[in-house]
Amino acid sequence: MRIRAAVLPVALGSALAIAEAVKVFRNAGRAQRPREHPPVVTERVSVLLPARNEAHRIAPTVLSLLAQTGVADLEILVLDDNSDDGTGELVTKLANGDPRLRVLHGRPLAAGWKGKPHACMQLAETATGSVLVFVDADVEFAPHAMAASVTQLREAKLGLLSPFPRQVMGSAAERIYQPLVNWTLMATMSSDIDPETGLPPTVVANGQFLVFDADAYRAAGGHAAVKQAVLDDGGMLFAVLGSGGKAAAVDGTGLAACRMYSGARELVDGHTKWLCEWVNTPRKVAEVSGAVLLLHVLPALAALRGSRVGLAGYLGVAATRITLARRFGEPPLPYSFTHPVAGVMSVGLIVESRRRQKRNLRTWKGRAV
Fold first, then answer.
1. Which class for 148: exposed (0-12), middle (13-18), buried (19 or more C-beta within 10 A)?
2. Are 178 and 206 in contact, with CB atoms under 8 Å apart?
3. In this predicted structure, what is the pLDDT of residue 139?
4. Is residue 183 within 8 Å of 243, Cβ to Cβ?
5. 211 backbone dihedrals φ, ψ, rounded to 5°
6. Which one, of 139, 97, 104, 102, lies nearest residue 118 by Cα?
7. Which of 6-10, 30-34, 92-96 has the least mean pLDDT?
């Protein structure tokens, strides 16, 4: 009975892991990419970049935006959100008088708002485009990125398009954990295709690169609808869906690249600032942590003890990590085989995020979260 009791969780975890791996394989094979050679976009496109103390990394982003092709009427607005490191002055210097780019000076953070939604709201108030593209200061764009994403937004008749950039990774911690960004996209992507858009509906969005129809953005309430949200990207996604708009996430590997966090400490600070917003009750902590350990950690531990069933579950997931790494331009080996370590890290980050939330220890960009 003891042997059987030990085998059952391993068998269950491995079966669920393989089922999830099959879903990830399938979605990776059908994930759409925007056109590599899009037509010229003639409508006005406003690219909106909130920036707070980003002088150390904003230059490649700004230069890649100024190098955009295929958009006949491009407006680039950068909001210097009360930086004290010369971010605004650097962006002005990079613009070198280019009339397409303007630097705005952010108002002090208003009561009842989080920093990023407040900055995005000010950008949207000033923007004049029929398409609003919100981008982060650490994303570098291919020259055709705006034309391609706007073309797909219009062809699919979407209110929101979320291209997922290629995740650039440096440290070992990043290479182990950050592939979960695209893993999550593939694991949560719907198995259905919306007949109106030709794309699977999405329940996740990536705030590094969000492309809105301006009317759909305003119908959703703009960033005022998510003014207290740490996860403003997910909040805006559901605001668009709630107001009757359509949304989709696509493979933006060929459009943009982003090093989300530099090193282990920044990775921990970055993820702990928002995970407690997603896993926001003790019950959810237990459910999510339990599922992660069952599917992504237990089979590997069992495999180390000679379980063939555990080995099958572990290798199924590792194979999907290799597939996604090749698809999304991530380092495949040996980090694809460290997926169980990423699972343990996930549980640790969830618990730490809840701890910091309870003790009001979460900060980002020098502000309390």
1. buried
2. no
3. 96
4. no
5. -115, 115
6. 104
7. 6-10
Omega before residue 143 within 30° of 0, cis: no
**Rounded Cα gap, residues 163 and 33, in angstroms:** 8
Our CA angle for 50, 54, 56, nearest 5°, is 155
Question: Concatenated DSSP letters for 273-316?
Answer: TTHHHHS-SHHHHHHHHHHHIIIIIHHHHHHHTT-HHHHHHHHH
Determine the residue type at 158: L
- Compute the distance between CA of residue 26 and CA of residue 16 in angstroms, rounded to an integer: 15
Residue 364 is predicted with a pLDDT of: 65
- Give the amino acid at 100: R
Q: What is the SS3 assignment for 195?
A: coil
CA distance 112 to 75: 29
- This prediction has a pTM of 0.91
| 8 Å CB contact between 153 and 213 | yes
